């Protein structure tokens, strides 16, 4: 990936066709695997930039041994700021963002690059996780398979379809467009959140095109716990995303915010209330069972997908996790609405309890100051 010397067939330093930007903080073995899979890519003509976001382990040294250009941040600033630094350091016209716990498939880079070569009007593209997550355990398997399933849905033509969000786990964007829009917003998102979705909204509102390419695949190496799944779904995704929708007035109907999924969130809330009420009213138990059956029916394609990949026992065991997921979505809506209303109340001008009527000014040669004082005192009572 070094520049070739100038010569008769090479009048100047070679400019790479692609810059891969990977932010990392204490990446560990997953980061090492991420770099190995990049090295095994079919596309070899790319520049690798690793932004070390204040790591306390040897992530920077691992990146240097892999031939990466390492940009060091002296303190953790979050992935939004780290990716911005990486994009500014890139020399290629296209920037491929990749998470440090994601391992691309061998053809991911060249397939993504080919889309841009074939479509000069394309501004950004992202792919999805594959259907073979590396981490064991039902929570990790469920979570990563859910992501794959959601990103593979919709009407595709030539394996792509238009979207209006962006995703930095495995996404490509024109560097010029990225910098022109100011990149990600690290002030609004100093920690991992939905900075990529917010950028996607800005781009598409300005008329830029983004597509989802289902053949651009990568393996997610992350190990999920139930607690981390809940925290992520509420505080890193759900609440920030709902607030973003409120601020922008976006009517979101794609990916995991489709109408059927919104209905499932509402049904989950009603089902949980009915289940709690079944202690006092036996009929509520029937309502809870009916609600659960409706949720499973609405998600039949997803559970059938899980059964094909992992078997029906796994699919059945994933039902409670899916209810937790919908419960987190519903709680996020409530928390975001409360936060939004509290913010509006803080911004609303404060009105006095009683209207202040200014006292009329009485002109005259005798003690005008005294008359004004009496009038003021009268209005304050």
- The CATH topology of the largest domain is given as Spore Coat Polysaccharide Biosynthesis Protein SpsA, Chain A
Strand content: 5-15%
Distance between the termini: 80 Å
The computed structural class is alpha/beta
Please describe what this structure looks like:
With 381 residues, this protein is of the alpha/beta class. The protein has two domains: 209 residues, Spore Coat Polysaccharide Biosynthesis Protein SpsA, Chain A; 123 residues, no CATH class. 50% of the residues lie in helices and 14% in strands. Strands 1, 2, 3, 4, 5, 6, 7, 8 and 9 form a nine-stranded mixed sheet that branches. α11 packs across α12. The radius of gyration is 27 Å and the shape is globular.
What characteristics describe this protein?
381 residues; Spore Coat Polysaccharide Biosynthesis Protein SpsA, Chain A; 9-stranded mixed β-sheet; 50% helix; disordered N terminus
In short:
It is globular, with a radius of gyration of 27 Å. The relative contact order is 0.10.
Write the layout of secondary structure elements.
Elements: E1 19-24, H1 28-39, E2 47-53, H2 59-65, E3 69-73, H3 79-89, E4 94-98, E5 102-104, H4 108-118, E6 122-129, H5 138-151, E7 160-163, E8 170-174, H6 175-180, H7 195-205, E9 209-220, H8 226-248, H9 259-277, H10 282-298, H11 300-310, H12 312-347, H13 368-380
Parallel strand pairs: 1-2, 1-4, 2-3, 6-9
Antiparallel strand pairs: 4-8, 5-9, 6-8, 7-9
Helix pairs in contact: 8-12, 9-10, 9-12, 11-12
């Amino acid at each position: 990936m070094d520049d070739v010397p100038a010569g008769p067939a090479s009048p100047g330093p070679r400019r790479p066709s692609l810059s891969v930007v990977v932010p990392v903080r204490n990446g560990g073995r997953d980061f090492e695997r991420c770099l190995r899979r990049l090295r095994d890519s079919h596309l070899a003509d790319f520049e690798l930039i690793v932004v070390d976001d204040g790591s306390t382990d040897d992530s920077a040294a691992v990146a240097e041994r892999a031939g990466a250009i390492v940009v060091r941040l002296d303190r953790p600033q979050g992935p939004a700021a780290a990716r911005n630094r990486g994009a500014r350091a890139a020399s290629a016209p296209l920037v491929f963002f990749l998470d440090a716990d994601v391992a691309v498939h061998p053809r991911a880079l060249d397939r993504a690059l080919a889309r841009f070569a074939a479509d000069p009007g394309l501004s950004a593209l992202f792919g999805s996780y594959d259907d073979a997550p590396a981490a064991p355990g039902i929570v990790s398997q469920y979570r990563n398979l859910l992501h794959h399933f959601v990103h593979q849905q919709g009407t595709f033509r030539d394996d792509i379809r238009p979207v209006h969000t962006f995703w930095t786990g495995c996404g490509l964007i024109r560097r010029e467009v990225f910098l022109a829009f100011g990149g990600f917003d690290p002030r609004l998102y100093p920690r991992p959140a939905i900075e990529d979705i917010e950028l996607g909204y800005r781009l598409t509102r300005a008329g830029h095109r983004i597509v989802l390419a289902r053949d651009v695949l990568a393996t997610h190496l992350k190990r999920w716990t139930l607690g981390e799944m809940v925290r992520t779904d509420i505080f890193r995704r759900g609440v920030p995303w709902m607030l973003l929708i409120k601020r922008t007035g976006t009517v979101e109907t794609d990916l995991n915010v489709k109408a059927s999924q919104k209905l499932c969130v509402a049904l989950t809330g009603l089902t949980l209330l009915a289940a709690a009420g079944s202690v006092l009213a036996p009929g509520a138990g029937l309502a809870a069972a009916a609600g659960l059956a409706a949720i499973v029916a609405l998600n039949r394609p997803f559970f059938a997908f899980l059964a094909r990949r992992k078997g029906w026992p796994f699919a059945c065991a994933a039902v409670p996790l899916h209810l937790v997921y919908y419960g987190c979505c519903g709680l996020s809506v409530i928390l975001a609405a409360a936060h939004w209303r509290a913010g509006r109340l803080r911004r609303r001008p404060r009105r006095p309890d009683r209207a202040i009527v200014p006292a009329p000014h009485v002109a005259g040669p005798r003690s005008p100051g005294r008359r004004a004082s009496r009038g003021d005192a009268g209005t304050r009572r």
